[in-house]
């Protein structure tokens, strides 16, 4: 990542660190499969008790992903007109609402985000049911 971009992201992070409200994650060079595989390796190194149920394993795995400690996303916004998730937050985004826009990431403006949020608000979330 260019230094100027990294510096700008750090400034934004510092400026909004104490702000309540929405939490935005921006992943750069992120691979959902690699994230899951790394978490599985960490989990295998731990060793699991025989009595671990599915809920235990899910929690233990989630605690070893790169997003550990963060809530799962409610909304995933896919830019650039692509109609695929591209491996983005495969585990964490399992119950997320998806929003697709033709606008490329570098050109996203406030009105684009407001459209995505309006679409999200209009949905009835069923969480896989």
Question: Layout of helices and strands, plus pairs?
Answer:
Layout: H1 3-16, H2 32-46, H3 54-62, E1 75-78, E2 97-100, H4 110-121
Q: What summary fits the major beta sheet?
A: 2 strands, parallel
What fraction, in percent, of the residue positions are helical? Answer: 25-40%
Percent strand: 5-15%
Main-sheet strand order equals 1-2
Mean pLDDT: 89
* Number of contiguous helices: 4
Distance between the termini: 40 Å
Instruction: Give the topology string: H per helix, E per strand.
Output: HHHEEH
* Residue runs with pLDDT of under 50 for 5 or more positions: none
CA-atom Rg in angstroms: 17 Å
Principal-axes geometry comes out as: globular
Give a short overview.
This protein is mainly alpha-helical and 129 residues long.
Task: Provide the descriptors you would attach to this structure in a database record.
single chain; 129 residues; mainly alpha; two-stranded parallel ribbon; globular
Explain the overall architecture:
By secondary structure, the chain is mainly alpha-helical. It has 4 helices and 2 strands. It is globular and about 50 Å long.
């Amino acid at each position: 990542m260019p230094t100027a971009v990294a510096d700008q992201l750090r400034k934004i992070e510092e400026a909004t660190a104490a702000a309540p409200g929405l939490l935005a994650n921006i992943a750069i060079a992120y691979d959902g499969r690699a994230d899951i595989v790394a978490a599985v390796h960490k989990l295998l190194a731990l060793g699991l008790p025989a009595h671990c149920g599915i809920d235990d394993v899910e929690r233990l795995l989630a605690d070893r992903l790169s997003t550990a400690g963060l809530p799962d996303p409610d909304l995933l916004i896919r830019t650039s007109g692509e109609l695929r998730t591209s491996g983005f937050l495969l585990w964490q985004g399992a119950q997320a609402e998806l929003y697709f826009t033709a606008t490329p990431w570098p050109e996203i403006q406030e009105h684009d985000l407001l459209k995505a949020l309006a679409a999200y608000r209009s949905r009835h979330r069923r969480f896989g049911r």
